[in-house]
């Protein structure tokens, strides 16, 4: 393989006071692949993807997107570059509706005068789109697309966040534990959605503690340990117990 | 000792590609859309839910009830078109301040300086137009610009320096009040002088009569400001971002909102509305006094709170603040007409505030 990574990071360092969350961390995401990131709690996985998506400012290191150096000052900047993220905390506004959350910061305006001069939102079109995307995810115990997100169950909220990222991601989709709160059936739907996004040619970064899922969908697995990339393994050549042994430090990769 | 033989290979993928064993049953699961019977609720929980969905309902009911009750007590004198339009007039300035205050409270902030900005701006436009002979439209334009700037100053300190809004605006309240005394020399500008030099400043004091009601332009201005803000907050993306910031600022930031920028805009807009209020206040009072509306800051917060806008941000409708201001006006008018001492009016408003906040807390506890 001599293809260049679409998203690449070298020597990332992020300190929170005296805690070093990222310690000279490297990262590579290849075009069109599903890259799983696994590691212990507190290993720095979320910090890594937050650095990649502009949610935190790194102290050192560099990030390139398609070979171009980038430094995202905010999540919006990363999003404008086509990187869509489902954060572990979901980043939903509880009092706002499902539609409003899905379109937060990229609302559609009505055509013509109403939209151009009076900046009126095209609420019907946004509703129809949101309903479509949620149906695709099969998360259809939701009946009212205008219902506030705070009245949804934890899993349904996660579904809304995943649907949002999958619908709008154009270059990279990042998912930080997207199935943590989901049931067996819903998790499977999210996995199908991930494969669907991949079939559109969009690469995915998937953080998960669920080894069977990781081994099922990932093309490569980035093992994260103590704030840095320990190794990258091929799920077809390593077993789950190998992966767990590496990430917990029980065994050194060779 | 016997050793158990190794288990036979399990069927299906174990660590391979494809769904695991336990998931194969999924294929047979129903694929339709789940339907729920609407859960049975006690009447009280039903009310709680309704209020959660439509937060303006409480102030609307309180307003309707208080109009009804005072109408029964004070009769004709209260219910006359003239008295009702008088109430509208009396609440117009606090109403406009409450509109500005609502914007800030929706972002989970608070602005103690709204009335101070307003009075300072009425002094600015009065001083420029009357004492210094600047053409009235220019003087008003300057006051709008300075009012916006004053709000922006609050916003920059809140958003960029991350100072608590309460402290920032407590500080600027004092600062603006001192500037106002300095600039005005603690002198009022008399009504006759305004009439002579710049009658435009009193534009919103004009009125017209319909069916016995006396409607001032200032009352109409207040209603228009609320209508425009309602539209902006509910029908434009910017308005929804204001709600999102008050709801959960960190989440809004991650979702791609430039929260600090919107915050500064909100405070600047509030300052601009205060400057418009300053113009209306000159018409309402007739003269320009640097000492007027000293309690306006707190009265605007009172209207917002009674109107059911949550001080925790992100919840409530701007229309609530209009109803809140009207409720205060109706109470004052009704109690006065019923011959009740002023101190009991204050007493009643005090309880209204506490009850409104208690209801807000109760509504927020709604369970899905
Ligand atoms: N905002 C913060 N302030 C201070 N320390 C932080 C902050 N965020 C993360 N950390 C620290 O950085 C380290 C890495 O955290 P991170 O959230 O990246 O871990 P993670 O691998 O995502 O863990 P998990 O699997 O539990 O989600 C932890 O030691 C954590 O305590
Ligand atoms: Mg994490």
Automatic annotation (TrEMBL), chain A:
Residues 7-251 form the ABC transporter domain. Gene3D superfamilies: P-loop containing nucleotide triphosphate hydrolases. Keywords: ATP-binding, Nucleotide-binding. It holds the Pfam family ABC_tran. GO terms for molecular function: ATP binding; ATP hydrolysis activity. It comes from the Bacteria. The keyword Lipoprotein does not apply. This is ATP-binding cassette domain-containing protein. It comes from Rhodovulum strictum.
TrEMBL record, chain B:
It is found in: Cell membrane. It is a multi-pass membrane protein. GO terms for cellular component: plasma membrane. Keywords: Cell membrane, Membrane, Transmembrane, Transmembrane helix. Residues 1-12 have a biased composition (Pro residues). InterPro entries: ABC_transp_permease. The chain crosses the membrane at residues 56-74, 86-106, 137-157, 163-183, 210-233, 262-282, 303-330, 342-363. Residues 1-21 are annotated as: Disordered. GO terms for molecular function: transmembrane transporter activity. It comes from the Bacteria. It holds the Pfam family BPD_transp_2. PANTHER family: ABC TRANSPORTER PERMEASE PROTEIN YPHD-RELATED-RELATED. This is ABC transporter permease. The lineage of its organism: Bacteria, Pseudomonadati, Pseudomonadota, Alphaproteobacteria, Rhodobacterales.
